[in-house]
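quick one, 412 residues, struct below
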Amino acid sequence: MDFNYSRRVEALRQQLWQFMDEYILPRLGAWRAEVAAGQYPVSFMEDLKTLARDEGLWNLFLPTLKDGEPGTRLSNLEYAPLAEIMGRVPWAPEVFNCNAPDTGNMEVLHLFGTEAQKARWLAPLLAGETRSAFAMTEPDTSSSDASNIQCAIRADGDHYLINGRKWFITNAHHPHCAFFIVMGKTDPDADKYRQQSMVIVPIDADGVEIVRNIPTLNHVSPEGHSEVLFRNVRVPRENLIAGEGDGFLIAQARLGPGRVHHCMRAIGMAEVALELLVARSQERKTFGRYLHQHGAVAGWIAHSRMEIEQARLLVLKTAALLDDRGPQGARKEVAMIKVVAPNVLSRVADRAMQTWGAMGVSPDTPLADLYTAGRVLRLADGPDEVHLHSVARQELKQQQAQLDRVSAYLAL
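---
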């Protein structure tokens, strides 16, 4: 596999670095101040989005765009290094219309939506005029296994009635959030993986209640990781995405590329943490020596660099497999990166926090937020244990046919 960046991707990388340096990094303080004052979205977001679109840094993630739809048609492998750069600042992806969960929702609507759904819901998303949310996770069941979902979607004449409680729904508190893609059960008696369906629910539909914005490790995201109640919400049948029973299939198609995006952003965050670790180790002394001159800190630096490089290569391999074989052909790799990348981010951020001491756990550095992001990602889109079980199961199946080979290595 050749992971050298093409001329086009390298040009986009340099353009994106320049944009980050000129327009985003100088506004980090202003973003924090405005959000702390209760202003969200921040006053300069729309100006930055207009500038990014004018420069061609827009919808970088969607390879299936059609003529006339705004974006770059990059493959997963081409997009991955750009996601890494954007991931260095948590709010930066919104500037380029590459923010989750909108990216996944755009992909779902692009692949499975009707022409009417695309016109009403997808077009404004592609234009960056609206935001959206993906309502899957539930508080009363282990919804990392979608077959456990209890939210009911019941046919009622020309409509569906939706009843259920969802939580940790990203974007639900965003003022520009226009709709949910809700995953629930249309036929609880069908085959295990044909019970689920997805429907579009306008955020202002009768019976939708945004209950609360749930903090994660006491960090409050202004866009919301929200608890949402759907009580007798009525939507027309044309809001069904694909067909009844297709929800699990759609979810699998959505999660593959989305996890590549998450993991590359996590690697970008880990790079920031390592840069902070190195900077602190070169300017702070203890016991007469700079921190990097102590063996423990030097080891942290070395291990962090090696782990980041390993994680990046595995994510790039996964992106290449997704492009070549699709989500099913990259199932094991997708599961592996979902464990590897967040854990690397958590470890590197933890080392950097230790190097910065008390300041590392304060709001004066981004390290606490980076650590929180890594820890939360070990649960988001499925906990580590689910992915580890998946990897082990696939490995056992793949090696079943060659168990006899092992005997050749035994001294019997």
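The chain has a mean pLDDT of 95.
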